[in-house]
Amino acid sequence: MHGYFAVRSALRARLGAIALVAPLMCFVLFFFFWPLATMMQAAVTDGTVRGVLPETAAALSDWDGESGPTAAMQAALIADLRAPAQQMDFGDAVRRLNSEISGFRSLMSRTATAVRGAPEGSTLTLVGIDQRWGDPKYWQAIRRAMPLYTDRNLLAAVDLTRDARGHIAQAEGGASANRQILTRTFVISAAVTLLCAAIGLPYAMIIAASGGWVRTLLLIAVLLPLWTSLLVRTAAWFILLQNEGIINDTLIALGLTDAPVQLIFNRTGVVIAMTHVLLPFMVLPIYSGLLAIPNNLLPAAASLGATRLQAFRHVLLPLAFPSLMSGCLLVFMVALGYYITPALVGGAEEQMISSVIAFFATGTANWGMAGALGFILLAVTTLLYFVYGRLSRSPTMMIN
Amino acid sequence: MPSQASQALRATQIVFGSAVVFFLLAPVVAILPLAFNSSIFLNYPIESFSSRWFVELSENETWRRSIVNSLIIGAGATILSTVLGTLAALGLRSAWLPFSSTIRTVFLMPMVIPAVVLGVGLQMLYVRTGLSSTYLGVIIAHAVLCVPFVVVSVSGSLNGMDPWIERAAASLGAPPARVFRFVTLPTIMPGLVTGMVFAFATSLDEVVLTLFVAGPNQRTLARQMFSSIRENISPAVAAAAFVMIVGTLSLAALVGYIRWRRSKAVSPKPQA
User: Fold this and answer.
1) Which of A12, A96, B104, B190 has the smallest count of CB within 10 Å of its CB?
2) Higher pLDDT residue, A2 or B114?
3) Quick one: where is this thing mainly located (chain B) (predicted)?
4) Residues pairing with B49 in the sheet
5) CATH of the domain spanning A178-399
6) Which pLDDT score is estimated for A347?
């Protein structure tokens, strides 16, 4: 009997815990994972042509892919064009086909007009409307656009494409600049990370070595910006860095320069502002890492005859290294996805991957490309997060 | 007698430390006086002090609306994330919960996923579900970002709590709801308030998700500042920044005060 009650109360405790976690779990599944899945799905699906030309899709599956179009294919395409399609969907499908072979747009609209204009029951041949339909190349293009799942967007996100035979190839020069933007995102993030490390490590060491009100002041200087709105800090840098801003006024007053130095809308401004915003994420992990180091190690090293530099190099640095690495990872990870600071302080040459994603999503409604670039950013960030999670035992460092 | 080398080191430390403190604080401090500048340019020198930009903030329809929206959305997101996050933190505490560390990691994920990625996904989802350009949609989007802060800070409070107090209350006959109301809740209150403050501050500062999911009617203060800096920068931005800084700092002070009172109440009194 006693065992029975123990099992029952354990079961009840387990169900109780699950019931408490369940609401948030559902919330996160619905409004966090589902949106991410939707975005990834948009990256790999391409249903526009299939949706507008369903019968052609069926007919194409029996085609050998080399010879001229069969009668069934032609009849299917005519039937599809006759069926009333949403104007917007039709436009999307034509745009998609035109991206395979330029000139497809005019071919399709000409054919659609002819088909829809022909009286009911009259016999039409596509080749009669336009000779190009006799060329297998156009049918191959339709077939390439048919699969529901495609790697087209993902390839395009890194400036690759598939050639007529389906092999992966470099996209034509100037077709897209995604690889350049990805490189730029990594370069800016790396520069910010290095700068944060160069400032953050010595600063954290000074905090750890100080005491009393000095330590409090130094810590407040890190925490106060963290508490201040990101937008406020970016606005502040916007004001300081502008050509008529305080920094330039000071430089001119000191006689260091005659004309204002361009600090805003370029790489310098973005790196300065992002370093300011992300520096606390570097200082805090290193600082708490340093606190865990027993403070008698350096005197011990000194008593054994080590110089300060040797003690730093061989005792402190190896011990502080893991927290330095987790600070670097954290800063790099957050920097990769930055949007607001480059958008406000940077020029066209500083726009990072997030800006491009936002452009595709809100500017041109190209969900496939937005999804594909988002997919890349998400994958890299998640990977870094797991590495970070292994390096640092408290991934919640930033709020305590 | 300190050696010359260590004196030089000390001087370097002081110079470097002060420079970093200046770098960290100066921008935030520099923007504050500009809110009181009478000039129409958002720049120094300050010609004369005036409160015209605060008047602009409260009288201009766009700015006033955005402040009201920020308060509505911030309150909504705070309530939603606090309820969900506190329940989850209580569940996560239990030793009986399977996969609890994985679940915790999942709950913290929104903190690290780039906002633009989540924004694109939410926009696509909202178009399908009819949540785009609604207050509820923006509140939900913000709450996703706020939840990790609540989970972390409530969990922190719960970890510091002696579970025997609750067991004692239960053994004395208190039903679970009563135990929660009179034992658990008062104990975790500081963590709860900290979480709420973080949640509200997160919502107040949110721009990216708002860009994707909000319509013109849900424009928040942060969103309005963003477009104002981008399009036609005016000193109203500095006034808005002033309001935000004062707002978040008073919230931070509230948290500090609660923690301080707490530490005073908890720390053992010296023996008389």
Assistant:
1) A12
2) B114
3) membrane
4) B37
5) 1.10.3720.10
6) 86
Residue with the two structure tokens 């509820």: B136
The count of CB pairs under 8 A between chains A and B is: 263
Of the candidate ranges A225-229, B39-43, B95-99, the one whose mean pLDDT is the lowest? B39-43
- pTM, rounded to two decimals: 0.85
Per the structure, the count of domains in chain B is 1
> B-chain residues within 8 Å CB-CB of A307?
none
Residues 212-251 of A with CB under 8 A from B: 217-218, 221-222, 224-225, 227-240, 242, 244-246, 249
If you measure CA to CA, which chain B residue comes closest to A354?
Answer: B116
Q: Is residue B236 part of a domain?
A: yes
Classify residue B175: in a domain, yes or no. Answer: yes
Cβ count within 10 A of residue B141:
30
Give B193→chain A minimum CA distance, Å: 14
For residues A221 and B22, is the Cβ–Cβ distance under 8 A? no
Judged by DSSP in three states, A162 sits in: strand
| Residue ranges of domains in chain A | 48-148, 178-399
| A62 three-state secondary structure | coil
Q: Min CA distance, B227 vs chain A (Å)?
A: 9
Q: What domain range is B201 assigned to? A: 34-261
CB atoms A32 and B152 under 8 Å: no
Query: Rounded to whole angstroms, how far apart are CA atoms A351 and A343?
Result: 7
